[in-house]
Design brief:
Blueprint: H1 2-22, E1 25-32, H2 36-40, E2 41-43, E3 54-56, H3 59-64, E4 68-70, E5 75-78, E6 93-95, E7 97-104, E8 107-115, E9 122-129, E10 139-144, E11 153-157, E12 203-206, H4 214-219, E13 223-229, E14 233-240, H5 248-251, E15 256-258, E16 267-270, H6 276-279, E17 283-291, H7 293-296, H8 299-304, H9 311-317, E18 326-335
Parallel strand pairs: 3-6
Antiparallel strand pairs: 1-15, 1-18, 2-7, 4-5, 5-18, 7-17, 8-13, 8-18, 9-10, 9-17, 10-11, 11-12, 13-14, 14-16
The protein binds 2-acetamido-2-deoxy-beta-D-glucopyranose (5 copies).
Length: 336
Amino acid sequence: MKGAFWISFRLMAFASIISSALCATYSRSENIVGTGFYNSFNFEAITDPNHGRVNYVNKTTAMSQNLTFASANTFILRGDWRTLINDSSTTGRNSVMIRSNNAYTTHVAVFDVLHMPQGCGTWPAIWETNGATWPNGGEVDIMEGVNDQGNDQVTLHTVAGCTMPASRTQTGFVPPSYWSSDTNPVTRSISGQLNCDTSVNGCGVNVGQASSFGPTFNADGGGWYAMERTNTFINVWFWSRKATNVPADVSTGGTTVNTSNWGIPVANFPNTTCNFPQFFDAHNIIINLNFCGDFAGQASVYASSGCPSTCTSYVDNNPAAFDNAYFWFNSINIYQ
Ligand SMILES: *[C@@H]1O[C@H](CO)[C@@H](O)[C@H](O)[C@H]1NC(C)=O
Ligand SMILES: *[C@@H]1O[C@H](CO)[C@@H](O)[C@H](O)[C@H]1NC(C)=O
Ligand SMILES: *[C@@H]1O[C@H](CO)[C@@H](O)[C@H](O)[C@H]1NC(C)=O
Ligand SMILES: *[C@@H]1O[C@H](CO)[C@@H](O)[C@H](O)[C@H]1NC(C)=O
Ligand SMILES: *[C@@H]1O[C@H](CO)[C@@H](O)[C@H](O)[C@H]1NC(C)=O
């Protein structure tokens, strides 16, 4: 046992030298800013597969209702905040889902976000998937949460056969259940959250920083999410706008990035017991704001969030409560 441990330890050390020498520096292939979002993304006016109280609108409607808005250097994407929904036969409140035209396998994506949607009933997400035969092809949730509760949770979803080790080099922690507003990284039962199989739940990592999600993220002026995907690992980092350790290549949106200098990620998904090329296809970036649905609207989740009424009733009847339900982006940079 001891001998085997040392052999594998030395192989790992060698592999990490190889990867930092060959794989950690990337060049910028896309710099998506302002009106560039309209060129890089498609609007998905689809029926929400997650049963949200939402009506995803097309580009024409989004622009005419000012649900998306681009200036020279920022892009806003939001849910409707002006309309009382008084017809239960509709699917709900207008909102927007956009999907990148380009798809990516190995890459780094850096999201410079000034503000994210907040409010009871909101379910904002920045994620990547292929989707055609989901859960085949996998899914990476980079920024996700509901009802202003807790921290950002980073999650992988796959078909059966991809699991994560309990011990990993990350600053976040494995939460006790698929969704927990719990914010304290103490010892817990973590068996369920190590299986990325979406029919079990998914393998999540709670970022463990209040500034990573919702009203606190917004009060701090937002921050940066970054993901590095290789054939042997997926890492996600988060830095608050107020953090003092933001790497210069991240804060300046540089033309190259060197992830070797970014420190320990908030979430680390190694390939110890998951063959990444088998479970993850080329992914599009998806940004959306859902309301209620399978996550935010789940009765136990909504009730435990301290939000009033029922999710659907609240979303339908309180348009002004969604005044702050908007994403505000400085940029998205892709490096390959
Ligand atoms: C956009 O959606 C509106 C409302 O459903 C519809 O009337 C319009 O034809 C759509 N436009 C396009 C270009 O699909
Ligand atoms: C659309 O939204 C932007 C950003 O909030 C705002 O600056 C602009 O005035 C709005 N336009 C209209 C016509 O309301
Ligand atoms: C529903 O709301 C619209 C305005 O948003 C209003 O014109 C209409 O009268 C309302 N209908 C009912 C049945 O309350
Ligand atoms: C990337 O950063 C690592 C760690 O600081 C360094 O060893 C390596 O030389 C850097 N790579 C490049 C191409 O600058
Ligand atoms: C993880 O990556 C290493 C290096 O490429 C490879 O040898 C190993 O087979 C991979 N593990 C799995 C489970 O795919």
